[in-house]
Amino acid sequence: MAPRSTSRSTDAVEAGVVVVGTIRSPHGVRGEVRIQPETDAPGRFKVGSVLLCDGVGLLRVASLRGLPGEPIVRFDGYDSRPAAHALANRELHVTRAEARRAAAKGSYLWADLIGLRAETPDGAVLGTVAEVLRAGAADVLVVRGEREWLLPMIASVVHTVDLPGGRVVVTPQEEA
Asked: Rounded CA gap, 10 and 171, in Å?
């Protein structure tokens, strides 16, 4: 099985972009905002990073502080709380190509998993990956076919992620 995904976004797949975070609320009076990351890529929100913001356009990170799991960011041109408030609840995107560049070698994006055929080691098709969820320590594939399967992304269940072949090879836990 490939390493864990580096982008948890499955939104905006058709547009060729992936969500890397959501701007939550202003923080303080100097234009900073709290970000809810939707990526495991280290350094995604570093100073100088350029991100596409829904309804706003390109934003450049001017400053960064806080914890990696809850960064506090100020963007160029947003120097007051009212200006930062205008960004609240907007998603931040990067292109799929940029998301892949930041990914660890051999990893994948959640968006890459959507639509893959899920099959058992003997070739029986269970359905298609419809969703990916974060559930504690492991991501979970939601596979829909004749029934719905919830398959944790652990080595004993997901054996192969074959992006070029358009499939994942899995052994559901009931059969493990």
From this structure: 23
Q: Of the candidates 135, 107, 118, which has an alpha carbon nearest to the alpha carbon of residue 171?
A: 118
Residue 166 pLDDT exceeds 60: yes
> In this model, does residue 2 exceed pLDDT 50?
no
8 A C-beta contact, residue 105 and residue 119:
no
Q: Contact at 8 Å (CB) between 50 and 57?
A: no
Give the span between the Cα atoms of 42 and 64, in whole angstroms.
Answer: 13
Mean pLDDT of the chain: 87
Q: How far apart are CA 80 and CA 31, in angstroms?
A: 4
- DSSP string over 127-142: EEEEEEEEETTEEEEE
Write the pLDDT tens digit of every residue in 98-151: 887 776 666 778 888 999 999 999 999 999 999 998 877 788 999 999 999 999
β 117-119/167-170 pair status = parallel
Q: Show the DSSP H helices in the chain as ranges.
A: 81-85, 96-102, 110-113
* Range 65-68 contact pairs with CB under 8 angstroms and sequence separation of 24 or more: 65/32, 66/34, 68/37, 68/42
Nearest by Cα to 112 from 164, 56, 70: 164
